[in-house]
Design brief:
Strand content: 25-35%
Distance between the termini: 24 Å
Shape: globular
Structural class: alpha/beta
Number of helices: 10
CATH class of the largest domain: Alpha Beta
Number of domains: 2
CATH superfamily of the largest domain: Metal-dependent hydrolases
């Protein structure tokens, strides 16, 4: 089936039409396509046709906790297109390494879910610094010994977050990196020099930059600045206005540029639901509709959606809609080495989103099939 989407295209040079055949973008241009479409979708004035969003850190969504297993992850896959997310990494916070391996297998079992693409597991921990554990249980933390690393490597997660300053942390980062697993620094007490050593060992991503790591001080800059300054590293940014102040988001854009910041929601099961009590890896958390906290007040993730992050970033000086969309699409695709995702180009996957003038999702297409359409 051939579907023509007509309207303002994000990230293309003057083209206003994209022709989808099957699950692939076959043509981009102006005017009439080379093949007659079977169906046409027309974006209204003020709307934009964008690449689908890719979220690298999704602990849950719509009342479903990723830690509950394949069925919950499949339900998240079905619900996420309403937020424009067409691909994601289900994320598990610290558990014993055997549980992390089992979770990774559950993610694999959900990989054929027909909604948002399940691109692999993000295992956040258990190799984290107890002093910066945040909502992670202390008794679930572990050191990255060779044996522990073996267990996770055998399961083949897509992304692993660790604290590189732990004993064995640099060796673990190097092993994961050589195995083709994306290595992120997070929940870490590392200083600036330790951060540079971590990057040399293979760290290429920062999990929720600035959160759960030392503050940037003018005499003790910490790992956050090492990650922000190095062009090899992409940083995950929870731009919900709570985890990171908008002014710091602006500063990060000026330091890092637009090609190395990936918007990440750090969503929990509270996202997409009204304020209330929900679950994060089985633990109760309380949502105010924007952020999620443990009962003692500790930040434990977000209830924000990707369009919420887009709206904040698009309002920052010099950013705008097109650049903000790139932070949610092409940049996270590059982190994972997904060359056919996160862009509108001939031969790319037909994962597309139509956004209205308020950056609300009107339509989401995945693999050339409309998976969400907002009622008129």
């Amino acid at each position: 089936m051939r579907i023509l989407l007509r309207g303002m295209l994000c990230g293309t040079d003057g083209a206003d039409c994209v022709l989808v055949e099957g699950d692939t973008i076959m043509w981009i241009g102006r005017g009439s396509p080379p093949e007659r479409p079977d169906e046409e979708v027309v974006a209204a004035p003020g709307e934009v046709i964008a690449p689908g969003f890719i979220d690298l850190q999704v602990n849950g969504f719509g009342g479903h906790d990723a830690a509950a297993g394949a069925d919950a992850i499949a339900a998240m896959s079905e619900a996420l297109p309403a937020t424009g997310v067409t691909a994601f990494l289900p994320t598990l916070i610290s558990e014993p390494v055997e549980v992390g391996a089992t979770f990774t297998a559950s993610v694999g079992a959900a990989s054929e879910a027909p909604g948002a693409r399940v691109l692999g597991a993000h295992v956040e921990g258990p190799f984290l610094n107890p002093s910066f554990r945040g909502a992670h249980l202390r008794n679930h933390l572990a050191e990255p010994t060779a044996g522990n690393v073996d267990v996770l490597m055998a399961a083949r997660p897509r992304l692993v977050t660790l604290a590189p300053e732990l004993p064995g942390g640099l060796a673990a980062a190097e092993r994961f990196h050589r195995a083709g697993i994306v290595v992120a620094a997070g929940h870490t007490a590392a200083d600036f020099d330790q951060g540079r050593k971590a990057i040399a060992a293979g760290v290429r991503f920062a999990t929720h930059i600035y959160n759960a790591m030392p503050q940037v001080h003018h005499r003790r800059p910490g790992i956050a600045l090492a990650l922000a300054l190095d062009p090899r590293v992409t940083v995950g940014l929870i731009a919900d206005g709570e985890h990171v102040h908008p002014s710091i988001c602006e500063q990060l854009v000026r330091v890092k540029g637009y090609s190395r910041i990936a918007l990440t929601t750090d969503q929990t099961s509270a996202a997409g639901k009204p304020p209330g009590t929900y679950r994060l890896s089985g633990r109760p958390v309380v949502s105010d509709g924007k952020v999620v906290r443990l009962e003692d007040g500790t930040l434990a993730g977000s209830a924000a959606t990707m369009p919420d992050l887009l709206r904040l970033m698009a309002r920052l000086p010099g950013v705008g809609v097109a650049r903000a969309i790139g932070l949610a699409s092409s940049v996270p695709a590059r982190v994972l080495g997904e060359r056919r995702l996160g862009r509108i180009s001939v031969g790319s996957c037909a994962d597309l989103v139509v956004l209205d003038a308020q950056l609300r999702v009107r339509l989401t297409m995945i693999r050339g099939v409309v998976k969400f359409q907002r009622p008129s």
